[in-house]
Protein 1
Amino acid sequence: MRRVLLLAGIMVLLVAASATGAAAADKPLRWHFDTGFSGVAGKAGDAIQDGWTIGFGAAWAPKPNSSISYRFDVSYDWWDVNTGDLDLDSDIPGNEARIDDGDVDQWSVRAGVMWESHGDKAKLVLGAGIGGYREYAKVSEFVYVPGYICDPWYWWYCYPGLVPGEVNLADKALTKFGYYASIGVSFPLTNSEIFLEAQYHWVNIETYYQTYPIVVGWRW
């Protein structure tokens, strides 16, 4: 539900901003929205499965028709934990817990420089910058706990029994600085443009880990 609400909120902002798309195209400040695949590389990729990303931001050009812009982004990434490669028993003596599920979420706020070539049909776009990355990870186990079972097909009668639940085995949140670089291509439209971009993020969280989102977006 949290992810659905996040997507709905960003889409509302996107639709609202599109109403002024024609005017924004003539201004030095341009907004953008992107979403797509988010891969995890390095040692972290052994424990975290590839996931998805969604982002919103702006690019500001200090001069009209300048190839250089200052870019700002806010992104949200989410991945699943590869539970088959995790074993709490090896880390906690006497522990008999079994990891059934796990999630990793990441918020990032970034600032950098973006360079665009000139062209009417396609433009090369390069970027680099720094940012703050907040990662939250948790692993859990499915268990049965005492509760009440309500059967809607049996006169809405409720009776005590065992119901499924989820126990949080471990969680951790970290906030660190990181760096990113990007390369992509954009295709100008009448008052906006669409773009395809590959990003590489290098984050200083304990042992460094890397992510490589591949996104499609709209800038107006």
Note: The longest strand covers residues 157-188.
Protein 2
Amino acid sequence: MRIQLSLLVLAATQIGATDCGQVLRDPGFDLWCGEDLCTWKVVRGDARRVDTWHEGDSGVELLGPDAAIAQLSPVDYGDGSCIRFDLIANVSDDAEALLGIDIYGDGSIEHTERIPTASWKPLSYKLRFAKPFTGIRFELSKKGPGKAVFANIGAVIEKDCDGLTEIKAGPAPLGAYCLVDGDCESGMCRPVTDHDSLLGVAHRCVACDDLSCGAGEVCGVAEPISPVLTVPLRCEPQGGSELAEQCVTDAECASGVCTGGACSTCDPSATPCANGEECSYTWIYGPYVCSPGAGRRTSGQPCATDTDCASGHCNGAVRKACDNDNRPCGNDTNCPVESGLVPGTCTTVGVTGGTCE
């Protein structure tokens, strides 16, 4: 993500993060990975695929005295503040079933709705959320010895939630959308560049700005918190970021050069390469280096991929990054969603802090 502080540009309204108004992936539990749910995750107890009242229609049964599944949705206040949650439930009278609402997906349930005893009964819940908010984790849980089976689960943006009490989450974490300083846990709401926004800029909660860090520190990119939140800004050690890591300013990088949001060895406009070599990026959102992929770097020189080196090997920590914003990742679920509420791809793109063998 090309993250830069900008105090001169007004924040743009975000595009929103639903699939044509659909808030959740996989309504109806159609997408199973073998015997495991693909998009819903088991957070307590266990779950299994079961048949429902309709042949060929699958549901999920929660197993154990305390079981729950959850899905984190990227829906935000730009999509709307009224959501209708629908499901069909088969719940016995010796089970307590609940729908839990966790704004920001931080593990804190702000609101619950009781799912009544039912035999394949369609249920619908309208939920009104206080603005601004960024991401919601929906949790379906069951306690007790009885049976709880759910099917045809979905959530959509609604226009009318008039009269309903707003669900409030309190101050927002770093990387969340905000309108004023008081919206944020950090007390700082600032405009930053944001690839999810119409004009490329939005107000997000940050932990620093250009004037707030101490000696030997710089306001820079920190580790990601959640795929529904932008990569946060906080005070970081000056010169503490290695080649290929995300950055905001030159001072954040050990190389002294931040180009296009990544610590680099050159900048086409400010720090050109010697001997007429081209300064370009190795991969989209990646670092700018001299003659990328040309095998010109010798032993001990900085590199971003094996192909930069004459030896064919770049020593360094293997870097995996999301293809849609270059944040570090372990797997696809760490990446922000793209169209259809599908996460971006986490792939091996090179190395961090590399030097040629």
Note: Residues 194 and 200 are 5 Å apart (CA to CA).
Protein 3
Amino acid sequence: MGKLRFGVLGAAKIAREKVIPPLMRSERCEVVALASRDAARAAEVAGQLGIARSHGSYEALLADPDIDAIYNPLPNHLHVPWSIRAAEAGKHVLCEKPIGMDAAECEQLIAARDRTGVLIQEAFMVRTHPQWLRTRELVQGGRIGALKAIQGFFSYHLLDPTNVRNVAEWGGGGMLDIGCYPITTSRFVTGLEPARVAAIIERDPQTGIDRLGAVMLDYGSVQCGFQYGTQLVPRQTMQFFGDKGRLVVEVPFNAPNDVPCRLSIFEGPGLGDVAVETIEIPVCDQYGVMGDAFAAAVQDGTPQPVPLENSLANMKVIDAVFRAGANGSWERP
């Protein structure tokens, strides 16, 4: 069986710099075409990346008979509409996160999947990264004792009002861009769903996007708290606290593709600031790993790493976070 042949909708930065190169180097994927609404731009980017051909419209890409699957990195408000059109054209879909603007949109996507019979998956690359598989194994295996608390932080600094992340009507804002990561990883590691959530959200007075948030997720036996911000000094961390130890994922989300990732375990009396064990995860590119896992699901029928039902559960938590921030009350997903 040959490689899964991808076509890319648009020339987004994440596609050009993060996703396309490792897909082209991966074992099971290849990128055979790229589309833009500007034909010259499509040809330029395809040439720069070594992609065989380009299309001057998204419609032409979806009609290309030599494409098996679509990678959709369009702005958030276009994720579901174009993913549905791709599915209706008979293409499997790997769609950037967030899968949609809200849970209702995700349900539309599930209906399209069921109607067309293709596979659709959210591109949460963390869910297939070996460091997160190892983290889940260690935590669920009792390496830090009984898990009691999770703490996370994810931030960057971006003020440009024309950037898609700062355009509210396009699904811009911190929760859909980065706040979704502590949610999906805490759900992944615990294997649980939060019963209720609370949040404090601050919005930018000019753009209207949520630029700062503090969130609590009540998993029953486990409490998760995290903050995110889009106008802060860049920082990311995830920590898991048990009754016997603490596990730190050093670079949890933007994992490097040129050096090993590290998990550190702390335990013992005092402040626990000296690691008793450091686990190195061999060098890999998480986007290539994600692509190969998706290709295996399409070609071999292996379980999808992130089925749409899981994405729907994540979006329900996100929706509840927004309600909690607006109402100042605990909300149930």
Note: The chain has two domains: 4-123, 126-287+315-327.
